[in-house]
C-alpha cells in the first residue's frame, strides 16, 4: 500500500509539472491565438448564435446634443448604441407618419436640435427592419420608409415621439411611443468615456460628421485568425474533397464543385470570392434582404463580434460589412470592406477577406491625435480635390501588418476619404499625414 501511494504521488507531481510547462509554452507564444479557433471548434456554431442580428445591424455612432454642444460619444466598456436598442425594445410603438421630405434647410435644423440623442447607422435600413430588430409588431407592418438616424428627445416630456431621419432624401418621419422614458438613455450618455465635439453638415453627397477640434484616438493591436483554403471549401461546398477540381494561376487558386459552386482564393491579396449558382432566389423585401445578408456573413466568419453592416443597396442587391473598433470602421486593403454579399438570379456572390480580428493584444503605441475635419478638407483642396469631389470622409482605422509578426496587425487611426468611389487614407490622396503636427 505504501508503494502504491508513492506511485500515485509521483504521478501527481509529474502531472502538475507537465501542466505548468505546457501553460508556459501556451501563454508565451502568440500563435496560441491562431490555434484557439481549432480548440473551440465544438463551440464555433454556438458562438455565432451569440452574435445577434441587432448587434451586426446596429448604429455605429451615438451623437448627443446636451444643450450646449453636439458630441460623438462612446463607452469602451459598454456599447451605448446596443444598450439604447435594448431600452427601446421595451417601448410600445405606433405607426409611422411622414413629416417632410427633400427639405435640406429643415433637415439640418432637425439633426442639430438641442437635447437629443441620435443613433446613426452607417447605411439606411427600413421601418419594418427596425420592427424586426426591436420585435415590434406595429413597426413590422408599418409603411417601410428608409432611414439612417433615430432621434430621441431627452428633454421635452410632452413630445411622445421618436424621429427617423434619412440623409439621402432629407426626409423625417415621426413614430409615437408609449411606455417610454428617456431617463435610461440619458444615464447611458452620461456614462460615456469618449467625447468628441462634432458638427453635422449637409454636403453635396450627404451629411458629413465634422470633428470641430483635433481628436485623440487609441491605437490597437490584434492577433488575427487566418484559415486555410481547405477550411472554406469544407464549409462552403459541403462536399467531399475528392469531388473538387482545383486549378492554380500564380497565387490565385480556383476550386470548382461540378458546375454549381466555385471558390477563388487570391493568396497574394488575401481575398476570396465564392459563387453559389444554386442560390438563385433574390430577396423580395428589405427585411429578407437584411436577414439573408446577415446569415451569410456570420456563416463565412467564425469571429463576427466586431462586424457591422456598413452599406446596403437593395436595388443592386448588395450588402457590405466592415469590422469596427470603438465605433470607428476598419479599412483594409480591399475596396469592398470585410465582406460583400450579392444576390442575383444567376446565384449569390460572396467576397470576403481571409484575415479576421481574433484577440486584442497590448499595444506599445499611445494615442494618436488627428486633425480637425476642416483641416483635412483644406489639405484635400490644396491637393486639387474640391469639397464636391468628396463622396465621404470618415475617421477610422488603417489595417497594418507588423513586419516582425505577421500574425498581428496594428490598427492605426487616420482619416479615410472616398473619391471616385474609392476609399483611400488621407495620406494617399495628399501625401500629407492626417496627424496633428
UniProtKB/TrEMBL annotation:
InterPro entries assigned: YycH
Keyword Membrane among record annotations: yes
Origin superkingdom: Bacteria
Gene3D superfamilies per the UniProt record, alphabetical: 3.10.450.310
Transmembrane segments: 6-27
Pfam families linked to this entry: YycH
This protein's UniProt keywords: Membrane, Transmembrane, Transmembrane helix
UniProt domain Regulatory protein YycH: residue ranges: 10-437
Protein name: Regulatory protein YycH domain-containing protein
Amino acid at each position: 500500500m505504501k508503494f502504491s501511494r508513492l506511485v500515485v504521488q509521483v504521478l501527481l507531481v509529474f502531472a502538475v509539472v507537465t501542466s505548468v510547462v505546457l501553460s508556459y509554452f501556451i501563454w508565451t507564444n502568440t500563435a496560441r491565438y491562431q490555434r484557439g479557433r481549432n480548440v473551440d471548434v465544438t463551440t464555433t456554431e454556438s458562438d455565432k448564435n451569440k452574435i445577434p442580428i441587432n448587434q451586426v445591424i446596429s448604429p455605429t455612432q451615438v451623437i448627443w446634443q446636451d444643450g450646449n454642444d453636439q458630441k460623438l460619444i462612446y463607452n469602451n466598456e459598454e456599447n451605448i448604441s446596443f444598450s439604447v436598442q435594448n431600452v427601446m425594445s421595451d417601448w410600445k410603438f405606433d405607426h409611422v407618419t411622414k413629416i417632410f421630405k427633400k427639405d435640406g434647410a429643415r433637415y439640418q435644423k432637425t439633426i442639430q436640435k438641442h437635447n437629443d440623442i441620435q443613433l446613426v447607422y452607417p447605411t439606411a435600413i427600413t421601418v419594418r427592419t427596425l420592427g424586426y430588430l426591436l420585435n415590434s409588431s406595429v413597426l413590422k407592418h408599418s409603411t417601410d420608409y428608409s432611414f439612417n438616424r433615430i432621434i430621441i428627445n431627452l428633454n421635452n416630456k410632452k413630445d411622445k415621439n421618436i424621429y427617423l431621419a434619412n440623409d439621402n432624401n432629407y426626409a423625417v418621419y415621426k413614430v409615437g411611443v408609449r411606455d417610454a422614458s428617456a431617463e435610461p438613455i440619458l444615464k447611458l450618455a452620461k456614462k460615456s468615456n469618449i467625447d468628441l465635439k462634432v458638427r453635422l453638415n449637409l454636403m453635396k453627397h450627404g451629411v458629413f460628421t465634422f470633428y470641430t477640434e483635433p481628436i485623440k484616438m487609441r491605437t490597437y493591436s490584434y492577433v488575427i485568425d487566418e484559415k486555410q483554403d481547405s477550411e472554406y471549401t469544407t464549409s462552403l461546398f459541403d462536399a467531399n474533397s475528392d469531388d473538387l477540381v482545383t486549378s492554380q494561376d500564380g497565387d490565385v487558386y480556383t476550386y470548382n464543385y461540378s458546375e454549381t459552386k466555385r471558390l477563388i482564393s487570391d493568396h497574394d491579396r488575401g481575398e476570396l470570392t465564392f459563387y453559389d449558382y444554386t442560390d438563385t432566389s433574390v430577396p423580395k423585401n428589405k427585411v429578407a434582404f437584411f436577414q439573408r445578408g446577415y446569415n451569410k456573413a456570420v456563416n463565412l466568419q467564425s469571429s463576427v463580434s466586431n462586424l457591422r453592416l456598413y452599406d446596403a443597396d437593395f436595388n443592386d442587391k448588395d450588402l457590405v460589412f466592415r469590422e469596427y473598433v470603438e465605433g470607428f470602421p476598419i479599412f483594409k486593403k480591399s475596396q469592398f470592406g470585410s465582406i460583400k454579399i450579392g444576390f442575383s438570379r444567376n446565384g449569390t456572390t460572396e467576397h470576403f477577406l481571409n484575415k479576421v480580428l481574433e484577440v486584442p493584444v497590448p499595444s506599445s503605441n499611445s494615442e494618436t491625435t488627428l486633425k480637425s475635419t476642416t483641416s483635412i478638407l483644406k489639405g484635400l483642396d490644396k491637393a486639387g480635390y474640391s469639397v464636391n469631389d468628396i463622396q465621404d470622409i470618415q475617421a477610422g482605422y488603417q489595417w497594418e501588418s507588423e513586419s516582425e509578426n505577421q500574425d498581428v496587425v496594428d490598427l492605426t487611426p487616420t482619416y479615410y476619404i472616398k473619391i471616385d468611389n474609392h476609399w483611400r487614407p488621407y495620406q494617399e490622396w495628399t501625401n500629407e499625414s492626417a496627424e496633428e503636427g
